């Protein structure tokens, strides 16, 4: 991961005068969980303002003509309302939901058939017809006898309890939940009339999305869905000998009864048109049945030739939301909803980055954005997967929020509908920390710098702002009797008081040109972090924007 020290950002200009409340948080974490600011490498793209990649990037390899032909076949009309399927209309009428601006912490999840074999990762379907061909055959039989479709009856979700899941999510401190409604594998996790390959008619024989939607909203949390389905059309590419054998036998990938599940046997323009019409129908169904607060798309929608279809989904969704009286948003990657191919000019969507330190900003990015990050070593559940500690995740949350982002933490449910004990423990400990320190996370925005220190002789600090409060997260063990913050020297203004969340009384401190030095309590008030609250300075105003783009 790479981080930059960002002394001033965008159009934010600060005069540090009184009064202000400043909060400093320090963590007893793994020291290497987030790099130090001082050790950060140079990065000439701290806002991660890149656009779409050249090539198909898992989108159907087709043309604008095919997409337009598919649109002409769509029977569903767009509901009346202010949104039309044009970029100008989205730009004029879209507004980032206020609930998202302050949420700062949500839960994602990769929930699907791949949790049955629980091997390699959530792309098991691709791998079993390729790199993991022999591994699959050794354990389940040859692919023409036991294909990916044969995992469906084993995906029982027999212990799935939506109420228990929602209770866990609430206790984690998350403000919204976005489960996978459909991954690349093309299996719908809801009661669908748009496809027979769904969880109500097969496998669990339950409307998993419907049950979870009701339970999550009962807890007062926002509920969205992710749809990776457009990536299914060319997801599987079997080796020639396997494909030929299956063709002759009309087995598995070439079984006519499963042709529209796999989308391997026919990839003609006509088949692609039919696929795109069905993709649109599934999104409309998700929108109408569950009224999602967020509709999240993966990389497959990034290509420009898909714009007319994506615009139609957006107009349908946003006009429906006007009928419901709800604030909702699409969330997409790179420049999927940025016709200029610059993700700093996104229209009608919240930009999502994949993995902290991957494509996510290394510095402050104003506006509104989020980053999806796995709780462990794989996105989907796999046997033996490593699960990160609460301390590690809290450090990533603090780092993301200090740069003005939102953390979307991915969970990995098992095939029986449960979460591993390790995942549950991590979530519960995050929630305990947020119960005490959440005021430093929720409803905050970036300061003029995102952090300081982290070298051998200094604490590793991350800053956030709410009103006249500055929050700084120190990513080291409890530093002992004293702490210094060099960014808060006399030039920053006059500090008036310092207190610690969870502890009574005011703390002693001195302030000089070299920084702010304070005497700490004898013990930390919580397991992973402490929070110092400092008054006397002047903070910058909120940095969110109506469009979500940087200022």
Topology record:
Layout: E1 21-27, H1 64-73, H2 87-93, H3 98-103, E2 105-109, H4 124-128, H5 133-140, H6 162-172, E3 176-182, H7 208-218, E4 222-223, E5 225-227, H8 240-249, H9 259-262, H10 269-290, E6 294-297, H11 307-324, E7 329-333, E8 349-354, H12 355-359, E9 369-374, H13 390-402, E10 406-411, H14 421-437, E11 451-452, E12 461-466, E13 469-475, E14 482-485, E15 497-500, E16 509-512, E17 515-519, E18 529-535
Parallel strand pairs: 1-13, 2-3, 2-10, 3-4, 3-5, 5-6, 6-7, 7-8, 8-9, 9-10
Antiparallel strand pairs: 1-18, 11-12, 12-13, 14-17, 15-18, 16-17
Helix pairs in contact: 1-10, 6-7, 6-14, 10-11, 13-14
Question: Could you characterize the architecture of this molecule?
Answer:
The protein is of the alpha/beta class and 551 residues long. The protein folds into 2 domains: 115 residues, Golgi alpha-mannosidase II (Immunoglobulin-like); 278 residues, Glycosidases (TIM Barrel), CATH 3.20.20.80. 27% of the residues lie in helices and 16% in strands. It is built from 14 helices and 18 strands. The strands form 3 sheets. It has an 8-stranded parallel beta barrel. The chain has a 6-stranded mixed beta sheet with strand order 11-12-13-1-18-15, covered by helices on one side. A 3-stranded antiparallel beta sheet has the order 14-17-16, with no helix packed on it. Helix 11 links the parallel strand 6 and strand 7. Helix 1 packs across helix 10 and helix 13 crosses helix 14. The N terminus is likely disordered.
């Amino acid at each position: 991961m790479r981080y930059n020290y960002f002394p001033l950002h965008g159009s934010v200009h600060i005069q540090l005068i009184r009064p202000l409340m400043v909060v400093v948080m320090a963590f007893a974490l793994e020291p290497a969980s987030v790099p130090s600011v001082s050790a950060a490498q140079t990065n000439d793209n701290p806002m991660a303002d890149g656009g779409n990649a050249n090539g198909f990037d898992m989108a159907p390899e087709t043309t604008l003509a095919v997409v337009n032909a598919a649109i002409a076949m769509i029977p569903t009309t767009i509901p009346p309302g202010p949104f039309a399927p044009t970029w100008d209309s989205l730009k004029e009428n879209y507004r980032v939901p206020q609930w998202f601006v302050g949420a700062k912490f949500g839960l994602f999840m990769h929930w699907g058939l791949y949790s049955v074999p629980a091997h390699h990762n959530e792309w098991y379907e691709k791998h079993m017809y390729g790199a993991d061909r022999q591994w699959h055959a050794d354990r389940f039989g040859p692919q023409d006898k036991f294909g990916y479709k044969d995992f469906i009856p084993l995906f029982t979700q027999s212990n799935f309890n939506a109420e228990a899941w929602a209770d866990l999510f609430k206790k984690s401190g998350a403000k919204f939940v976005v489960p996978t409604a459909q991954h690349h594998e093309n299996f719908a996790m809801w009661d669908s009339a748009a496809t027979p390959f769904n969880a109500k008619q097969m496998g669990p024989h339950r409307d998993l999305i419907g049950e979870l939607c009701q339970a999550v909203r009962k807890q007062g949390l926002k509920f969205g869905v992710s749809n990776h389905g457009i990536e299914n059309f060319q997801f599987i590419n079997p080796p020639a000998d396997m494909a030929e054998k299956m063709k002759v036998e009309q087995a598995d990938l070439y079984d006519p009864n499963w042709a529209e599940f796999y989308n391997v046997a026919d990839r003609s323009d006509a088949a692609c048109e039919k696929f795109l019409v069905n993709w649109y129908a599934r999104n409309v169904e998700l929108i109408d049945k569950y009224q999602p607060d967020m509709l999240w798309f993966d990389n497959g929608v990034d290509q420009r030739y898909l714009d007319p279809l994506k615009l139609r989904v957006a107009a349908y969704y946003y006009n429906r939301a006007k009928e419901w009286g709800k604030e909702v948003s699409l969330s997409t990657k790179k420049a999927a909803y940025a016709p200029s191919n610059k993700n700093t000019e996104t229209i009608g969507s919240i930009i999502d980055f994949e993995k902290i330190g991957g494509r996510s900003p290394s510095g402050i990015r104003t506006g509104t954005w989020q980053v999806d990050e796995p709780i462990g070593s794989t996105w989907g559940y796999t046997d033996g997967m490593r699960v990160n500690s609460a301390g590690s995740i809290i450090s990533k949350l603090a780092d993301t929020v200090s740069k003005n982002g939102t953390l979307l933490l991915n969970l990995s449910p098992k095939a029986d509908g449960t979460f591993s004990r390790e995942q549950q423990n991590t979530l519960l400990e995050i929630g305990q920390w947020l119960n005490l320190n959440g005021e430093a996370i929720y409803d905050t925005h970036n300061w003029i710098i995102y952090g300081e220190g982290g070298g051998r002789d200094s604490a590793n600090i991350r800053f956030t702002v709410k009103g006249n409060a500055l929050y700084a997260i120190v990513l080291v063990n409890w530093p002992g009797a004293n702490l210094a913050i060099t960014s808060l020297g006399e030039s920053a203004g006059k500090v008036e008081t310092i207190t610690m969340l969870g502890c009574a009384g005011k703390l002693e401190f001195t302030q000089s040109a070299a920084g702010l030095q304070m005497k700490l309590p004898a013990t930390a008030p919580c397991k992973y972090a402490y929070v110092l609250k400092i008054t006397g300075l002047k903070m910058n105003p909120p940095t969110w924007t109506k469009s979500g783009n940087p200022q």
